[in-house]
Amino acid sequence: MSVSRRLTKIHENSKKIIFDQNSKIVLMSDCHRGIGNGADNFAKNQNLYYVAMQHYERGRFTYIELGDGDELWKNKHLTDIVCEYPHIFELLSKLYQQGRMHVIYGNHDMVKKSKRWVQQNLYARLDDNENLLIPLFPGLQPLEGIVLEQRSGRGDILLIHGHQADFFNYSLWRLSKFLVRYVWQPLELIGVHDPFSASKNYNRRLSVEGKLSEWARRENKMLIAGHTHRQVFPKIGEPLYFNDGCSVHPRHITAIEIENESISLVKWTITAKPSGVLFVSREIMRGPVELSAFLDQDRSEESSISLPPVL
Questions:
Q1: What is the C-alpha separation between 150 and 89, in angstroms, rounded?
Q2: Mean pLDDT across 228-246
């Protein structure tokens, strides 16, 4: 099946979530939560992520994770990840039980596609102190895609991880998982990068972005993904391919916010005050731009694809 047909099928069959001017949604992906060792790319940004999630929880945002939330290629057991970041999973569980969390699976957490695996690993966690099972995400159903649909009927937005446009990490994901776990993870511990990762291989990243952008242009649809770890926020008139970036940048994490029917790309980072005090800051990188400016634009005359990165 071609990438275009695959994306169209996901768009047609995905769960729909209705939103309006009163809705507040934050999209994040590629956290790659690990077990705190040298191959855990999330560890350095765990405090940034936690502060950001506290902000979104207090602000009554709905959190949608666009895949690769947990690093389940390098690590066999989710329980080890939960034990490493209990405070983060406690906060995510609180959001979920308030009906304000949805999960899309990516290539690194493709096992969440299995209902049996999810039931055994995500419905509850073991409290070592009390030796009791505590609800975590009871009834959770991770999805391949979600469609955000405006209550006004003006347009909709397809949310996916983005690995659907990456042959090696979609069709051959089991092989990729094997290589990452048993070949590239040991090498990563001594500083060697995985050449098959879309986030670290320039040509592969451009290929994935080109296919996603082409689908958005051809179908005249708005598409938000992750996977490549590179944030993208198009200009008016360009193909409506957005990317929320990731949570494993060296010094910051990024997210896409939808509020008051407008969209923004934001960055969370550690900043120093003149006094020398360090604090976590939220910076708007692009936007806010009203969604109507994107969804109502006429792109019928477009003949080229543009991929504007936001660095």
A1: 30
A2: 95
In the 8-state DSSP scheme, what is residue 180? Answer: I
Q: Which of 236, 217, 243 is nearest to 293 (CA)?
A: 236
DSSP string of the chain, one letter each residue:
--HHHHHHHHHHHSEEEEE-TT-EEEEE----B--SSTT-TTGGGHHHHHHHHHHHHHTTPEEEEES--B-TTT-S-HHHHHHH-HHHHHHHHHHHHTT-EEEE--STTGGGG-HHHHHHHTSEEEETTTTEEEESSTT---BSEEEEEETTSS-EEEEE-SGGG-HHHHTTHHHHHHHIIIIIHHHHTTT---TT-TTT-HHHHHHHHHHHHHHHHHHT-EEEE-SS---B-PPTTS--EEE---S-SSSEEEEEEEETTEEEEEEEEEEE-TTS-EEEEEEEEEEEEEHHHHHT---TT-------B--
The burial of 93, by beta-carbon neighbours within 10 Å (0-12 exposed, 13-18 middle, 19 or more buried), is given as buried
Residue 144 has pLDDT above 60, yes or no: yes
Write the CB contacts of 68 (distance below 8 Å, at least 6 apart in sequence).
29, 30, 31, 32, 106, 107, 108, 109, 161, 226, 227
Contact between 259 and 284 under an 8 Å Cβ cutoff? The reply is no
Q: Whole-number mean pLDDT of the chain?
A: 88
**What are the φ and ψ backbone dihedral angles of 308, each rounded to 5 degrees?**
-85, 110
Whether this prediction's pTM lies above 0.90 is answered by no
Q: Identify the structural domains of the chain with CATH numbers, from first to last.
A: 3-295 (3.60.21.10)
Q: How many residues in total does the chain contain?
A: 311
d(CA 122, CA 307): 36
